Amino acid sequence: MATHYSLEEWTDFVRSLVDPATRAAMMRHAEVCAGCADDRRALERLSRTMRADADTAISAGTMRRVYALATRLPAPAPSRLRRIVAVLGFDSGTQPAAVGVRSAGRGVRQMVFEAERYQVHLQWELAAPGGPVSLVGRISAVADVVLPPGLVVKAMTPSVQAGEATTNQFGEFVLECAWDPALTLHVPVATDGVRIEVPLATVTGGSGPRVPRGRTSY
Q1: How far apart are alpha carbons 49 and 176 in whole angstroms?
Q2: CA-CA distance, 209 to 93, in Å (whole number)?
Q3: How far, in Å, CA of 162 to CA of 81, rounded?
Q4: 18-36, pLDDT tens digit by residue?
Q5: Residue spans of alpha helices (H) in the chain
Q6: Are the CB atoms for 126 and 109 separated by under 8 Å?
Q7: What's the sign of the alpha-carbon dihedral 50, 6, 87, 186?
């Protein structure tokens, strides 16, 4: 294979959602491609962690101590980047179920957010109610915008940063963090002078998009 497999394809590989022929081809590719082998190992570790976390009960006292520590973190410095709030354009959770659709497992949703000249593709899975959320994403832009690798994707709540990931050369990233009703992804694109914000809280509850129409502020 001349090109690499994407993180979404490796996610399906780890979840055993690919057909036997594709699985065999991906395994052969990973034997000679260090980058794809690293992606496969990272997603396998993430999958094991998600399963273990789903089986682990966390006491209310522990959660209170964690949140108490989190709220002591200093507030982030004000950003001079222009803020763009992304608009939900597609949500598989609002579509009729179809047999054989890739990654259509229980608890898995695919979404596309639009933010002016950018798109943020997300596939997310909630391990258990109140548990961690696993996000596999890809950031893309229109032809006249060059996205550099190494963009920092931050999972933010009103009081604390819940997680962080870095995009690869294809704009892809994998992020795991604790779920929060006000969770938002922040993606600063300094080369374009903007910060993309993706409000994940707008797609909770399975009742369809509840997104304020695209707005821009400074």
Answers
A1: 10
A2: 10
A3: 21
A4: 898 999 999 999 899 888 8
A5: 7-14, 20-32, 34-54, 60-70
A6: no
A7: positive
Supply the DSSP symbol for 129.
T
d(CA 115, CA 209): 15
pLDDT at 211 (0 to 100): 33
Contact between 210 and 93 (Cβ < 8 Å): no
Q: Say what the pLDDT of residue 53 is.
A: 55
CA distance readout (Å), 7 to 13, 36, 37:
10, 9, 11
Length, in residues, of the chain: 218
Average pLDDT, rounded, for the chain: 76
Q: How many CB atoms lie within 10 A of CB 92?
A: 16
Distance CA(73)–CA(146), nearest Å, equals: 34
**More confident position, 182 or 205:** 182
Domains defined for the chain, CATH in brackets? 7-54 (no CATH), 80-217 (2.60.40)
